[in-house]
Amino acid sequence: MKTFSTLNRLFQKYLPAFVLVTAVIALIKPGPFVWIAGIAPYMLQFIMFTMGMTMKPSDFSEISRRPWRVLLVTGLQFTVMPLTAYLLSILFKLPSEIALGLILVGSVPGGTSSNIMAYLAKGDVPLSVTATSVSTLLSPFMTPVLLSFYGGAFVPVEFWPMFLSIIQIVLLPIIGGLIISRLLGAYTEKIKDTLPSLSTLAVLGVLAGTVSVNQELLVSTGIGIFFVVALHNLSGYLFGYIVCYLTDQTYTVTRAVAIEVGMQNTGLAASLGMQHFTPAAALAGAAGVLIHNLIGTLFANFVSRRDVDLNMTLRTQTDAQKVPALTKAYARQSVR
């Protein structure tokens, strides 16, 4: 178990590096990874299954304790992200299939990596976990509706096939994980430490498979798709910060909201794009796996270092007139 605990810490600490290396290898040498694209839906089912096994009633505690904050995150996620994806698709005149893929990224629920990033950023982790769980459970309905509404302007989208796919890929595995955890709690508790590592390996597998089958498209589009996906990702952070500032949230809540809104389940988006449309529709999802984790880690490192710098300044500050000015940045820390 110590080995897996070490692996978990390494994956959390160096996740962007693992993602980047995996993407580069699959891009340079796609052949060995093409077969993985065919089993990507099963790998996502495994990821959702492990999510169900690790879910606890406390993961939903924020719904009763702070329901309007959970509603705030979920509302932003399912309004801002698909709309921004649609507007960016028009602004940059993206080809129809690629535009559909970007809108798909904006329409899927929050990614489980957001919980790790919220922790690293010293954000409100319980809120992040609850929001991820709620958006994931809502996704079988919300994702097809949003994709039909926005994506239908580019490519015809059928609601029911998409709905059934998300039920199969997301909801049923989560329910299965919950049932197994409930029935075999004593046994599953022993392997829970291994699940994050196995889940991360599955995410890397989905990335490798998606990149490999999209190798030619990724090379031909160059950095363009990565730039648009990055803008879309950053829009979530921006709107999260703006809304939290306007509603006077604490800094921990603000960080969790920004990360949760910005980071989507890009692996699910890539898989659905491949399954229901064309490899081009999975392109934004493939780019998103890399971009979302990279930006999330950079953001978490930046705000964490900023905390350290401010704390050091506060401890060494001797001028009583200046202390209030410095602590003003931390005025939002008090939990309301």
Automatic annotation (TrEMBL):
Entry-linked Gene3D superfamilies: 1.20.1530.20
Domain of life: Bacteria
Keywords: Membrane, Transmembrane, Transmembrane helix
Recorded topology in the membrane: Multi-pass membrane protein
Subcellular location as annotated: Membrane
Primary site of residence: membrane
Transmembrane regions: 12-28, 34-55, 67-92, 98-120, 162-183, 195-213, 219-244, 280-303
InterPro entries: BilAc:Na_symport/Acr3, Bilac:Na_transpt, Na+/solute_symporter_sf
Gene Ontology CC annotations of this record: membrane
The protein's name in its UniProt record: Sodium symporter
Protein's organism: Dolosicoccus paucivorans
